[in-house]
Amino acid sequence: MHLWSEYTARRGSNEVASCIYNFVHTEYQILQPGEGRTLVLWADRCCGQNNNLMMIEMLMKHQREQYFTIVEQKFFTTGHSFNDCDRNFASMEKVLKKHTLIVPENTNFIIAKARVNNPFTFKWMQREIFLNFKPLTEFLLRPRTLQITKYTWFRMETQIPNTILSRESHHTV
Predict the structure, then answer these.
(1) Structural domains of the chain, count
(2) DSSP 8-state class, residue 52
(3) What pTM does this model have?
């Protein structure tokens, strides 16, 4: 989990993309020649954080930097999904009902208590870790008619650079 207070940064697409970018750069190494790795990112349909051009550009950036050979972003069906994040936040809210947060840093305690057997790991994001992906979206090669929110699946492959494959459903043709 990546945490920050609202005096450090906002809660938009740049911030969410920065957290994922930071996680990948912390947990993975650049691929060696001949190696392959696939990233599959499941997200809800929140346009302000997940389902937008900035997130796609950040994912393509990982591919261009050779962290992954295939990158997929898939979206849950609105109103018909319950992902792990929902369950995780519910466990934190349960702990929060028994405690009072006085300063943002007390969030560590709530997160640590939420799952005792397999505790969450977390990182406090500092202002300098947040990146601005917006300038990259101006150079993204895409048809002007690409309606990001229309699709439930995006795929970028090293073998076909600067191409965004998309589908309106999770069913294969």
Answers:
(1) 1
(2) S
(3) 0.86
The answer to whether residue 85 sits within a structural domain is: yes
Instruction: Report the distance separating Cα 3 and Cα 124, nearest Å.
Output: 5
Residue identified by tokens 């809210």 is 93
Question: How does pLDDT run across 123-136, given as a tens digit for each residue?
Answer: 999 999 999 988 87
Query: What token pair was written down for 144?
Result: 């002007």
Domain residues for 82?
Answer: 6-167
Phi, psi of 165 (to 5 degrees): -85, 145
In the chain, the amino acid numbered 67 is: Y
Do the beta carbons of residue 43 and residue 152 sit within 8 Å?
A: no
Is residue 1 situated within a structural domain?
no
Please enumerate in sequence order all residues whose Cβ is within 8 A of that of 78, keeping only pairs 6 or more positions apart, or say none: 44, 45
What tokens were used for 149?
A: 């929110």
Report the candidate in 39, 62, 53, 63 with the shortest Cα–Cα distance to residue 143: 53
